[in-house]
Design brief:
single chain, 220 residues, alpha/beta, 4-stranded parallel sheet, 10 helices, 4 strands, 49% helix
Length: 220
């Protein structure tokens, strides 16, 4: 099985490059493609934005159509799936999933596709494994880590920053989005290697893990 995994930012790619092999083993292949933000699904599913800007949802109708046309030419014994990973942020989960499947259902042929949504943000997956966080940040603030309600809409990256970053989210935010992105990438690179994918408390992480395992035939 080969997986094409689409993520909305560089920190997501760095995390999944480390985590996916823990989920599917070495008998399968994968490629994680990062984009420069999530954007929004075009209302008429006809993308008119510049593909060079690489905004995930803006390009999703074009991407899935392209994958569908390409995959349809493969022999049945070569299985390929697209996995779209993005943050929920403050959107309604049901409405967002319906919008994503509307894009997929408009493809003919449609590629094998799974949509996996981090609730609220990808940092929820790190907070689902507090032992991994503590391994990297032994002085992380326990009251903040244990006060986090898993997969809640609460400002997830800010919660992690308040726990591990000197001065917390307020100090990091004052440095601007480039600094925030750099810190998110640092968390991905440092925390992901220590994560136990079999024992994560994040339901959205488990959903992602189990979709990959089911497609790859790996049960543990």
């Amino acid at each position: 099985m080969h997986f094409e995994i689409l993520v909305e930012d560089q920190s997501g790619k760095k995390a999944l490059d480390i985590l996916v092999p823990k989920m599917i083993g070495t008998d399968h292949t994968f490629r994680v493609l990062s984009y420069n933000g999530i954007g929004r699904i075009p209302k008429d599913l006809r993308n008119t934005s510049d593909p060079g800007k690489r905004i995930l949802l803006d390009q999703l109708p074009r991407l899935l159509r392209g994958y569908g046309n390409t995959f349809s030419q493969y022999t049945p014994d070569y299985r390929v799936a697209v996995i779209v990973v993005c943050d929920l942020d403050d959107k309604c989960l049901k409405t967002f999933r319906d919008e994503l499947y509307h894009v997929l259902n408009a493809c003919n042929p449609a590629p094998e596709t799974r949509f996996c949504i981090a609730i609220e943000e990808g940092e929820a997956w790190f907070l689902g494994d507090l032992s991994a966080v503590k391994k990297v940040y032994p002085r992380a603030k326990d009251d903040i880590l244990h006060g986090y309600a898993q997969d809640s809409i609460c400002g997830t990256w800010e919660t992690l920053a308040d726990a591990v970053y000197s001065g917390g989210a307020a100090t990091l935010s004052a440095k601007g989005w480039q600094a925030i992105g750099a810190e998110k990438s640092k968390w991905a690179e440092m925390i992901s290697p220590h994560m136990n994918v079999a024992a994560n408390r994040s339901k959205s992480f488990v959903y992602f893990r189990d979709k990959l395992r089911a497609l790859s035939g790996k049960t543990t």
